[in-house]
Structure prediction request, 223 residues.
Amino acid sequence: MPDKPGDLTATEVGADFVNLAWSRPIKDGGGRLKGYIVERRESVPQVGGSGAGTGPGGWTRLTQQPILTTGLNVPHLIEDKSYEFRVIAVNDAGESEPSVIGRPVLIKDPRACAPPVLRRGLKPVTCSEGRDAVFEIDVDCSSPFDVVWSKGGRELVPSSRIEMVKENGNCQLIVHDCGIEDVEEYTARVSNRGGSKISRTELQVKSMYSSGCLAFFLLQPYR
Prediction:
């Protein structure tokens, strides 16, 4: 019988696949090496233990006939599940002992990332007519993210009156020289590849044209 193949490793892992690689056995057992058989099984945590164990079923052969290469792409796996793999060398005399991968492989998209977290969302803003209104959020995100500001469902773009500031996790929308026409619902949408978060609030503008008191213009709270 041949020796078992050299160390089995996962060279690349994606959202639904893994690429495996191994080396030839040190000794071929005196017979012609016909190739390799690769097997897998799903891994589940051991009961009462901290490590990963084996799945409830046995090993499933991924190559019904021996393959000549020392590598294999295994497709159609399930993301967020762990799998164990092993490879067996075959010659004219039979099959070797298996070479088992060192640890279970978790199938995960390497580009995946956690969605952003709003450490502080939008608060209601009140300002006097002709003054600036400042909306502010604090974002906790370990990957690059985008912020889209909207007014009444319409996306805002920078202009002479609309200023957008983004410094690390602190993001601000500044509406300069506020008027009654700026009373509306304002929204901040924060997104990355992992997902998005939305925060909403309203703007109150105090008018200076009422007699004896200030008039308040307030959008009804968002439901």
Q: What stands out?
A: DSSP finds no helices and 19 strands in the chain. Confidence is low (pLDDT under 50) at residues 47-56, 211-223. The radius of gyration is 31 Å.
